[in-house]
Write a structure and sequence with these properties.
Strand content: under 5%
Bound molecules: heme C
Order of helices and strands: HHHHH
Distance between the termini: 125 Å
Radius of gyration: 38 Å
Number of strands: 0
Number of domains: 2
């Protein structure tokens, strides 16, 4: 039989052990945080860097495409474009295989609508992508077809 004093001592030792355990757990967690902080920092920096690299790459390829488009530009006048791409079906702006384009701005008061129509094409009328007619040429073409007279 153990006396009361020994039992008290045992309980005290147990409590001390439990406390020690909690303390060492806490220290472990603290150490983990301490070491993972730089790691987290490193990882987020790396992610940010690769993201900005990716954005730079996208930007560069966009600039390259724009330069390509510009260099592909044939820099034709509205009339030259019309004769090359439209005249077969709209001869002299009059009705042919396609309808007459005289006074076209009455039907399409908005240039952007006309541009969209020419870019997309309609029925048998072929689409005209920027590779074929660049934006500057398209603007000139619009001016030209809006000025077509009988
Ligand atoms: C292969 C023949 C063809 C060619 C080439 C062509 N078109 Fe057309 N175009 C048509 C036909 C057909 C229509 C009528 C489409 C419809 O309404 O379904 C049309 C319609 C249009 C219209 C709308 C007319 C309206 O009254 O709504 C415009 C504007 C037009 N063409 C402009 C052009 C221009 C500018 C070009 C040159 C870049 C061009 N077309 C080249 C056949 C052609």
């Amino acid at each position: 039989m153990r006396d009361k004093c020994t039992i008290k001592k045992d309980t005290a030792r147990n409590e001390a052990n439990a406390f020690g355990e909690v303390a060492s757990r806490a220290a472990e967690i603290a150490r983990l945080c301490f070491y993972s902080f730089p790691l987290l920092f490193l990882v987020s920096t790396l992610v940010a860097c690769s993201l900005s690299e990716e954005m730079k790459r996208i930007e560069a390829s966009k600039q390259y495409e724009e330069r390509e488009d510009a260099s592909r530009s044939t820099d034709l006048t509205g009339e030259q474009i019309f004769i090359r791409s439209c005249n077969t079906c709209h001869p002299g702006g009059k009705q042919g295989m396609g309808p007459s384009l005289i006074d076209i701005s009455k039907k399409y008061p908005d240039d952007e609508m006309l541009k969209a129509l020419i870019r997309k094409g309609k029925g048998i009328m072929p689409a005209q992508p920027p590779k074929v007619i660049n934006d500057i040429e398209l603007a000139r073409l619009i001016v030209y077809i809006k000025a077509l007279k009988e």
